[in-house]
Here is the input.
Amino acid sequence: MKQAKQKTSGAAVPTMNAEAIRRALQRIAHEIIERNPQLTHVVLAGIPSRGVEIAQRIAAFIHQLRKINVETGVIDVAMHRDDVGTRSELPIVRESKLPLPLEERTVIVVDDVLYTGRTVRAAMDAINSFGRPARIQLAVLIDRGHRELPIRPDYVGKNLPTSGSEKVRVRLEQTDHEPDEVQLEKQ
Amino acid sequence: MTTRWTRKDLLGLRELPAEEINFVLETADAFKQVGTREIKKVPALRGKTLMNFFVEPSTRTRTSFELAALRLSADVINISATTSSLTKGETLKDTARNLEALHADILVLRHSSAGAPQFLANRLKASVINAGDGAHEHPTQALLDLYTIRERRGKIAGLRVAIVGDILFSRVARSNIFGLLKLGAHVTLVGPSTLVPREFEKLGVEISHKIEEVLPQADVVNLLRIQHERQRREYFPGIGEYIRLFGLTKERAKLLKPDCLIMHPGPINRGVEIDSEVADGLHSVILDQVTNGLAVRMAVLYLCGGVSA
Here is the structure.
């Protein structure tokens, strides 16, 4: 990790600062309220680690705007991935936490960066092992393109055109103990 | 959680550093949750084949590994000593090489000889998980014991753990001693001097031959099964004598602290090492151990089986 940071330190382009992230998540909160009249049926399920923090922030914005506590959860995707044994590093599994039962609810999967769509596919599989929600939606802070599966987000903080060799680096206060920031790193 | 798992095998807790033990326990938290889902199965080891190779009889450890593997979507084959060609004189190495020729990815081995898993791990590409080798180690049993203590008490460091019974022949005791000491517990071994020899003090544990002196301070009492076959070999005078001196009777249970945990790796001999009232009582976490064993074994299979070759 440290090495990668040094190697790319000259070529990191700041893309979103803390204020831009705040506004993007607030706008997502507005859109969620607009599209989901029954907010009490909504669950914001974050994908560890940053998706969990983003889900909590969106929930806080919804509370500010509507005084409704939307439930949040954690959906681990590591054990549902399709590439175990082929990656050099085994993904760390974390405990999933979702309010049950899921029937009648709208589960909004929340992640920091949407890329190939494979993580989201794994998240949907994981959710289905808990039950059958009425619908699943997807909210991401960054959509960087390059989908490998037919998946599209319902709520996007920022569309960021990238090339495959670039890396999107998201930092969030609680997860990373660094100021909120999104950078695009050229390799 | 920054630890990265790089081991293909789990052979014992002696060689496992504290951080890696904790990493397995944290991974087991995630897999324990899977057991509460409507669909208790995840695709993590889909396409992998696990061979349960039990040269010594065992029902609960084998079925625990089997269910753990099934819940990870691996394919499972069970081979026991009586059905294998070991009875026809094939060597362990040849049997194992045949299993590997079938492209098994994970071999779970129970063997009467200490070191058999190590022997195979050095020679096979497949992951080797020690499910008990002679009087040497039984790492997944100790990991599930550690998991159960941590779950109930929130920590392991500083706790006083008494292990009672047939320590000399017990791989469960050995693996527990290594794991508990690494995570900072105080360990006292209790039993007759024939089964709890002084040499164990070298490992950093205390030894007592009087259970009444140990029970009032204990945070955890782990009772080992008294193996009747030992009695014939005169390691202790008789079952009656053992119960009188070391059995956790309901009278002795009154000495326990209110929050003390009673553990037992099973199968229990009711009325020998433990009275029925105590085995089914409030202190007992014996069935939690069974549930947690599944989660811990899922974690071990996921970690060892998921490491790319």
Notes: The mean pLDDT of chain B is 91. The radius of gyration of chain B is 19 Å. Chain B is about 40% helix and 15% strand. The longest helix of chain B spans residues 286-306.
